[in-house]
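User: Hi! I'm working on a homework problem where we have to compare a predicted structure to a textbook description. Could you give me the structure for the chain below?
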Amino acid sequence: VQLQASGGGLVQPGGSLRLSCVASGSINSIGVLAWYRQAPGKQRELVASITWGRGTAYYTDSVKGRFTISRDNAKNTAFLQMNSLESEDTAVYYCAAGGSILSLNARGQGTLVTVSS
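Assistant: Happy to help. Predicted structure tokens:
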């Protein structure tokens, strides 16, 4: 599976961005797609994940109520809608996919999200 992430940019606090992750290759092997982020000097953090078939979503506590993960199976694309962005959300965001949350073997290149006034 190959993944292509896009949609990052500079946004003011309180603003919104939508990240996209387009999957290609062995799509049928995808059971879960996840978004991770890594801020400078910090460990990589799982932000959200979604099961490819049923669309069951998981969110880390810090983004609940602000971020929404979704997928469009027909377009082999997953999205991360980010609202009410805070400076703490500044990071490089990556999408990853695999058969399960414990085997996310494919990872796309990162897309930088900067939240700043």
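For your comparison, note the following. The radius of gyration is 13 Å. The mean pLDDT is 95. Good luck with the assignment!
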